[in-house]
Amino acid sequence: MSSTLSALRRHPEFGQGARDMLGITLGISAWGLVTGVAMIKSGLSLPLALMMSLTVFAGSSQLAALPLLAAGAPLWVLWATAFCVNLRFVIFSAQWRFYLGHLPLRWRLFTGYFAADLNYVAFMRRYPDPKPADEPALAYFWGGVALNWCAWQVPSIAGILLADRVPTEWGLGFAGVLALLGLTYSLLSDRKSWISAAMAGCAAVASYALPLKLNIVVAIAAAVAMGLLLDHWMPDTKKPEEAVK
Question: Is the dihedral of CA 30, 54, 92, 8 positive or negative?
Fold first, then answer.
C-alpha cells in the first residue's frame, strides 16, 4: 500500500488535487480549530479529544455530539446522533462507488476514512464522468484528501492544546460553511443543478426542527429526488458527438 501511495504522490494530478483544495483550506482550518476548542470546553479530556479528532474525522458529527457528551446523554443517543448527521456520506458513497468500487476492500476502507464533503465536490468537478478511477484520478483524489486531512487535523489538535486561548465566541466555524458554499456554487452550471440546489435549501429550512440534524439528510434526499425528476422531465438534448466534446 505504501509503495502505491508513493507512486501516486509523484503523479502530476496529486499536486493538482492539492492545489484545487488549497483555496478552501482556510475555511476548513478555522472550522477544525473551533471544533478542537469545543471538544475541550465540553469537558473531554486531552487524550479523548485527540482520539476523537483522529478517529472520527467528521466535524459536523463531532460538534453535534459534544453537547450530548457534556449533558451526560446515553451512549446510544450519541451513536444515533453521529449516525444521522453522517448519513449524507451514504449518498456520497453511492457516487464514489462508480470510481472506487473496483479497488480491493482494504483500499476502499482506507479511502473511506479520508473522503470528505469538500473532497467529494472537488473530485466530481474534476472527474464528472462516473467510471472506475485510473491512476490520474486516484492521484488527484489522494492529493486533495491529503491536504484536507492536514488542514483539519493540525488546527483541530492546536485547538485542543490551546483551548483556553481561543474563545469560541470568535465564530470561526462559519468559515468552513462559507468554504463549502463557495465550492458548491462553482458546480451550479445549469438550470437543473440550480433547481436541485434550491430544493435542498428549502427542504433544509423546512425540516430544521427535526432532531439529530436530520434536516441535512432530508435536504440531500430532496436534492437527489429533484435531480432524478429533472433528468426525466428535461433530458439532455445534446447530440452524441456534442456530448463527447
Answer: positive
For residue range 184-202, list pLDDT tens digits in order.
Answer: 666 676 788 888 889 988 9
Q: What is the pTM of this model?
A: 0.71
Tell me what pLDDT residue 245 has.
Answer: 43
